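Please check these two lines:
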Amino acid sequence: MKRLIFFALGATCCMGTQAQVVDDDFDSFIKTEVQSFDKFIDDANKQFISFLRNPWKEFEAKKPVEKRTKPEPVKPVVYDEKKDPVAPPVELDIEDILGQSTGESKQRPQGKINDGEKVGFEKPQPKPTTPTAKPATPATKPATPTAKPTTPALKPATPTAKPATPATKPTTPTLKPATPTVKPATPATKPEPPAAKPASPTAKPTNPAAKPATPTTPTTPPAVVPVPTAKPSAPTSALYKESSAKQMVNYCGQRIYVDKSLKGVCSIGNMREKAVADAYEAMCKADYKPLLADCRQLKKDLKLNDWGVFLFVRDVSNALCADAHASVVMQQFLLNELGYKSKMARRADRDQMLLFVATDCKMYGRPYFTKDGLNYYNLTSDETCQFYMCQEDSPKAKSSIDMQITNAPLLNSGMVNSVHKNGAGTVAVSVDVPKSLMLFYKSMPQCDYSVYVNAKVNPAVADRLLSSLAPIVEGKSETEAANLLINFVQTGFKYATDQEQFGYEKPFFVEELFYYPYCDCEDRAVLYSYLVRNLLKLDVVLLDYPNHIATAVCFNENVSGDFVTVEGKKYIAVR
């Protein structure tokens, strides 16, 4: 019996020893693999640095694609049911449907927009160059009707495609494009609607309109009752704890503390190839990996998209470097180490370092060059110039900057409250918007409209907005509910063109309508499409006109009005 016990104990000890050996072997294997990977990274940097020392090639940036601008109406037209006669609806031949493609023109419908789904996009197409011209006599109907209407901002009171009848005739109607892609619902300010068929200028125009039933509105104004929302938990990682051993970075109004091992390491003098290569090599030899870990952690903590990471890298580099030129070198180094395609350059006409980054969609108003089918945009300067650049890429630069916002950034500091009521004062919404998020959105260059339409909305803003409007549309028919929502969107926000408010074109994300004092028709269309998708659970597409963007809704009810067919579904134009 004793022998049996001793044998059992001996076997157990052997098993423990064997397990320890296996663990040690596994740890040794992992350590070897990590060292091997580090060696590969070091070798890759060493090779790239040798390329940086070679003479750089001269390039010339292409002129920026002009920012999308539209001669929007100075004052939105208000639909008047008593003045506008009913006309039979027509089917619109719409190819310019936003939210379906990333291009800003010649867009064809690809599919519906469902809440929670990201729409697929195709390669952007060039902007049309069809000029506009004024007719000799404004009071005379143009000989050629416009193929795309100059539609006003979204009409209040009813979600219809039925136009208002303005008091005066237009002064600048748009001539028919060479290849018309849209048969319009109605022009913005023409007293008579355009011809249903652009090929027949003499045909009597139709007056398409989706005219839903007029809903019954409450007789007493609703009280603005704050809706409790779940407050985001405060960050707990070391990035948010002040420390003298770390570098403080102001990121969208929030204090972030990062590793400062690279502080003062990147320094360049004459901006020639050797000086830049020496600075890049100095960073490679420094302990830079903790800083990379901080960048990755912040992206995870704040649910940042790639643009958010770029913005943080730029802020970090500015804080760790003595001048803007060295900062550009550090930005390329950090972005490449994080896997992003970026390239630094030296201006040919003066001493200035530039940074170009590849993005997944078109940017407007930024000079760029094309390499391997990708557009690299100048994020340092908006001037078109000649420059010198290393032709080779870092072997670790694999991905372009993704501008899509698939998660709402968790930037929740500096709340600003705004209250919006419809024209009758019967619908009111109170929303708190984070100023830090507004700073983030303000930093973004103008992109394709798909970025704004598909962007996820801040959870607190979404909860307050949707929960405030849900009782208003509850129990209503689809047309009644859509009518209430379009009325709120059109009469609850002050109207101004982007040129009047900013001096340049600035599309809004949903949250921005509740922060800035004014908005235009494109912004209202983005908000209305969001409300319809989330409150009514109906599919929508956006219709792109020469000076207007409107929404078309796929009703389950039988609604009369001008429509567009997308993948066999009928979408009623709502303006």
Observations:
- Residues 50-64+244-389 form one domain.
